[in-house]
């Protein structure tokens, strides 16, 4: 479970409460690692897999609906930008894995802080 906590940046007590709720709802199973009794492995249940599949289908439907509201050229620009963002995020995750960024030095915050003002959304009054 500590691997999940590290990945999601959730402290151990908070993660335990979340996992307890998921377990009570039948969404995860806990299994002790046979090679290390201190390690608990979490596994998705059939119920949670079906729920995730349903959520993915709903999300895809909503995204298609949104993209259908744009003309083809605009939709392509948005799709290209999202692909670029996903690639950059993946690259950042790989870099962070090898060169951990100290807490408080969030790269997204730094990026937005240094992003040219003309390209940012104007502040709301």
Question: What is this structure's SSE topology?
Answer:
Elements: H1 2-8, H2 12-24, E1 28-33, E2 36-44, H3 46-68, H4 72-98, H5 107-114
Antiparallel strand pairs: 1-2
General form: extended
- CA-based gyration radius: 20 Å
Structural class: alpha+beta
Strand order of the largest sheet: 1-2
Count, helices: 5
Mean pLDDT over the residues: 79
Q: What proportion of the residues is helical, as a percent range?
A: 55-70%
Q: Kindly estimate the percentage of residues that lie in beta strands according to DSSP.
A: 5-15%
* Poorly predicted runs of 5 or more residues: 117-125
- CA-CA gap between termini: 44 Å
Main β-sheet, in a few words? 2 strands, antiparallel
Query: How many strand segments?
Result: 2
Note the run of SSEs as H and E: HHEEHHH
In summary, what is this structure?
The protein is built from five helices and two strands. With 125 residues, it is α+β, with helices and mostly antiparallel strands.
Characterization of the model:
By secondary structure, this protein is α+β, with helices and mostly antiparallel strands. It has a domain at 71-104. It is built from 5 helices and 2 strands; from the N terminus they run ααββααα. It has helices at residues 2-8, 12-24, 46-68, 72-98, 107-114; strands at 28-33, 36-44. Strands 1-2 form a two-stranded antiparallel ribbon. A hairpin with a 2-residue loop joins β1 and β2 (36-44). Residues 117-125 have low confidence and may be disordered.
């Amino acid at each position: 479970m500590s691997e999940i906590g590290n990945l999601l940046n959730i402290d151990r007590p908070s993660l335990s409460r979340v996992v307890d709720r998921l377990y009570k709802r039948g969404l995860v199973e806990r299994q002790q690692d046979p090679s290390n009794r201190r390690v608990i492995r979490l596994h998705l249940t059939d119920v949670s897999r079906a729920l995730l599949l349903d959520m993915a289908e709903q999300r895809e439907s909503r995204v298609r609906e949104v993209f259908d509201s744009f003309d083809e050229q605009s939709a392509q620009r948005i799709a290209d930008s999202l692909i670029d963002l996903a690639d950059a995020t993946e690259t950042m995750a790989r870099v962070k894995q090898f060169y951990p960024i100290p807490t408080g030095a969030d790269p997204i915050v730094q990026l937005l802080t240094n992003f040219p003002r003309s390209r940012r959304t104007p502040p709301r009054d």
